[in-house]
Each structure stands twice: as structure tokens, then as C-alpha cells.
Amino acid sequence: MGLPLTPLLLGRNPVLLSALPREHRIDGCNRVVFVRVGRVPLLLALIAPIPISMLTDPFFFWAGKRYGRSIIQTT
């Protein structure tokens, strides 16, 4: 969902980038850099990805519970 917005937000708004439903390592690194330079408060950088994580983690847990064992056994 956030793929077209990624290049626009990468260097401008790391908090909004981390709130999109696609958390990657580069988003976390981007937030850390902005915190280090002083453009984003640390608390805001830590709290920003929590809402989208609360929405998506139950689905990932359910999919792993349902299909995880069969995927591991077939490989």
C-alpha cells in the first residue's frame, strides 16, 4: 500500500513512513537518523509504528499458526 509513497517520504517524513503498513529496516534506520539529528523526538519515533503493528500482527500470527508447520515440513 505504501509503495508509491516510499520515495516521497524517505527523506522527508520518517514518522509517517513508519506508520504505513510496510515496516522495513530502512524505515527504522531512517527514524534513527532523524532522531540523532534532532528533527524527530525519540518518543514519537518509537511510538509511530505501533498502531499499524497492532493491526497486522494478529494476521501474521494466524497465518503462521495455520500454514507455518506445513511449509516447514515440505522444505
How would you describe what is shown here?
- The chain is mostly helical and 75 residues long.
- It has helices at residues 6-9, 14-19, 25-37, 42-47, 50-74.
- The two termini are 30 Å apart.
- The model has no long low-confidence stretch (mean pLDDT 79).
Search tags:
about 80 residues; about 70% helix; 5 helices; mainly alpha; single chain
Contiguous helical run count: 5
What is the chain-wise order of helices and strands? HHHHH
Which runs of at least 5 residues are low in confidence (pLDDT < 50)? none
The dominant shape is: elongated
Helix content estimate: over 70%
Secondary structure elements and pairings:
Layout: H1 6-9, H2 14-19, H3 25-37, H4 42-47, H5 50-74
Short description:
The protein is built from 5 helices and no strands. It starts with 5 loop residues before the first helix and ends with a helix.
